[in-house]
Amino acid sequence: xxxxxxxxxxxxxxxxxxxxxxxxxxxxxxxxxxxxxxxxxxxxxxxxxxxxxxxxxxxxxxxxxxxxxxxxxxxxxxxxxxxxxxxxxxxxxxxxxxxxxxxxxxxxxxxxxxxxxxxxxxxxxxxxxxxxxxxxxxxxxxxxxxxxxxxxxxxxxxxxxxxxxxxxxxxxxxxxxxxxxxxxxxxxxxxxxxxxxxxxxxxxxxxxxxxxxxxxxxxxxxxxxxxxxxxxxxxxxxxxxxxxxxxxxxxxxxxxxxxxxxxxxxxxxxxxxxxxxxxxxxxxxxxxxxxxxxxxxxxxxxxxxxxxxxxxxxxxxxxxxxxxxxxxxxxxxxxxxxxxxxxxxxxxxxxxxxxxxxxxxxxxxxxxxxxxxxxxxxxxxxxxxxxxxxxxxxxxxxxxxxxxxxxxxxxxxxxxxxxxxxxxxxxxxxxxxxxxxxxxxxxxxxxxxxxxxxxxxxxxxxxxxxxxxxxxxxxxxxxxxxxxxxxxxxxxxxxxxxxxxxxxxxxxxxxxxxxxxxxxxxxxxxxxxxxxxxxxxxxxxxxxxxxxxxxxxxxxxxxxxxxxxxxxxxxxxxxxxxxxxxxxxxxxxxxxxxxxxxxxxxxxxxxxxxxxxxxxxxxxxxxxxxxxxxxxxxxxxxxxxxxxxxx
Length: 647
Fold this sequence. Notes:
Blueprint: H1 23-36, H2 59-80, H3 92-107, H4 124-138, H5 149-159, H6 172-185, H7 192-203, E1 206-208, E2 211-212, H8 223-239, H9 247-259, H10 287-294, H11 302-317, H12 366-369, E3 382-386, E4 391-396, E5 401-406, E6 428-430, H13 439-442, E7 450-453, E8 466-471, E9 474-482, E10 489-499, E11 502-511, E12 516-520, E13 524-526, E14 531-535, E15 538-542, E16 548-555, E17 561-570, E18 573-583, E19 589-600, H14 606-612, E20 614-617, E21 623-626, E22 632-635
Antiparallel strand pairs: 1-2, 3-4, 4-5, 5-6, 7-12, 8-9, 9-10, 10-11, 11-19, 12-18, 13-18, 14-15, 15-16, 16-19, 17-18, 20-21, 21-22
Helix pairs in contact: 1-2, 2-3, 2-4, 4-6, 6-7, 6-8, 8-9, 8-10, 10-11
């Protein structure tokens, strides 16, 4: 593993036997990022215009984003050190306070030449204003209370653009909530109905078991933790126990439920499962864990909270994040634009600042003082069913990999046109792999996808996902695949069953006779070209580090298999490869395809697996699979349905 690009304190293997990290490591990581911004500041520090691809909002908005998101980080660092007055403060903290105070002064001065864009309906400025509001609240004694009255008035005037304004109808409602609550906290005019309306709206998106969807539809990803849970509790922190109308108690209960299974999303090496949008926020995946401790509602032991968070931060640091300049690039490890969105600008990755929320906890808090405890995947094999998002989580302790089996999140509206995004449409994701997300690879849509193929090889897509079941070690869903070149859609019902280190996939696809069918496994990637092997009814790919992805045909597939190779298509490295199975001619009507899927750091012997696993499919399509340990799994048959499932 390469060394980080900056100096870290010595590790503490007594208090932190699993990561070695302490609070001092978090402070050093925060300080390095904040220091590295200086060459990119405008003269009055109101904007940070970082290098990299601009967002669709333009350079001035991107500069504001650079200020706002890094101010959030600075505010946690300042407040966590008591404004620079406690033993954990560094001499640079007073300069940090001066720097962001000057930025507030300049950014709200319309004649400064660095003025922030006004808050208008559904503008990117709304997102950034929320970070500034939180930062001002947390640093109030050291920044807001010391601002000149005229500057305070200008700040209020800028925030007032929220009052009566319209936001996008998703997590953006909460930006208005926290920003107007800040106005209320400083005695400025605000709209109570805006705040209540936003908080009432998220009730429509609560689906139970601690889970929200981010807006209408099945939008499940890390926004649930770093937005849908985070902002309501930050709002409650601003409003105070006498001003939250009892909502804070509800939000704490829900976050507690959510956190009960959240550690299962993290691999033994600290990596979060690579699923969903805005993955360039990286450390932000730890925000709900810190929030649980801050709001005193977490079911997690303090040592587990720190192990999860420090493990995730260390995972990225050891892989070159921040980079040699001290910056967070647009990507996962290094720069990789296909894992970003068009709204992502050069400073977007600094929403990672949310992952530093733990610095608000005092140095003598148990999350900083108690001994680290292992993650679930470090203790035993993990099988976790999450019916709300329609996911199975599968963790294996021998290699530390966590896999997410997706039968419920598609990031589409409930009605109307639907799209397929590689970060939502796949059958599976993991902590060790990323989907093939570059446009040239996504057009082929091979990895973790069951496709009907047009004569020219164009694949059908998995767009709107209809969850059917999710319980124990089994989940299923249906999607309607449009045959390329036609307007007709055909139902494909997919079931995943977890057994030992494997995923068993059973697909029941309805399609015309003669149509080609293809299934892909996990794409593995690295700095060198993955090794590949094929045999009758099986295929595998292996990275230089020994990560193996394998598929074994159990029913319905031809003996001939394939390897799909890509270059510059994967966030985990420039060279990637995916094993795949093929059926040249669908039999017509409903066909059954059964596949064994493996993703492991162990050696895989696919031919031996094929010979030792029994698979019987009866006339009704019922599938019975007997594994080498003698256990039999049955997946019922019956007709697929074109009736819409409950979403």
